[in-house]
Design brief:
By secondary structure, the chain is mostly helical. The protein has two domains: 75 residues, DNA polymerase, domain 1, CATH 1.10.150; 103 residues, Orthogonal Bundle (hpI Integrase, Chain A), CATH 1.10.443. Strand 1 and strand 2 form a beta hairpin. Helix 6 runs antiparallel to helix 8.
């Protein structure tokens, strides 16, 4: 499995598996019955959303599929019991008024607050993901044409260990148009950065 997915995906899933599959550690693979999976679902439901449980159970189902192929189990109790019902979740977005209230609280005379200002501005105005925005370099922005190229994402393993990675899908690689106000704010931030670098 490790060789089939991105390192970030593998590490995230490994930690999820270690956290939630411990429920079954005292049983051998062929001892796990549908009732055990159902009880496990109920335990998870005390702390987590149905959608999250579906994701975790998907990993369990994949593990059992592999166990069946390898002859370690005769059946897949996870698939037999089925998924917990999911709930539709409403995603709340900031209105322009809410966004303006937030950024009005940030003082651009302070380097860190200016960084927060430009981060919020970019995320709100472009719809980029946080990892995409964090991976932006000045070479990705064409101030003349107003085009911003999204070709990578920043993956943090630890505070000291991070790297640029290709997005998970080709559709994530895209070019977006940025308005004149955004260009103006980016240029102002670029000037601040250059002053700090020069010391």
């Amino acid at each position: 499995y490790k060789t089939q997915v991105k390192e970030s995906t593998y590490l995230n899933r490994r930690s999820t598996i270690q956290k939630h599959f411990s429920y079954f550690y005292k049983m051998t693979v062929d001892e796990i019955e549908p009732i055990n999976v159902q009880n496990w679902q109920l335990e998870l439901a005390k702390e987590f959303s149905p959608n999250y449980i579906r994701i975790v159970q998907g990993m369990l189902s994949i593990a059992f599929d592999r166990a069946v192929v390898l002859g370690l189990a005769k059946k897949n109790p996870s698939r037999m019991i089925g998924n917990i019902k999911s709930k539709k979740t409403k995603v709340d977005f900031w209105t322009l008024d809410e966004f303006q209230k937030v950024i009005s609280l940030l003082y651009k005379g302070d380097y860190y607050e200016h960084y927060l200002f430009i981060s919020y501005w970019l995320l709100f105005m472009t719809g980029m993901r946080i990892g995409e925005a964090a991976a932006l370099q000045w070479s990705d922005i064409n101030f003349e044409t107003g085009l911003l190229s999204i070709t990578k994402t920043l993956y943090y393993k630890t505070m000291d260990e991070y790297k640029f990675m290709e997005p998970k899908t080709q559709a994530s690689i895209r070019t977006i148009y940025i308005d004149t106000d955004t260009i103006k704010e980016l240029k102002a931030w670029q000037e601040v950065q250059q002053k700090v670098l020069k010391g």
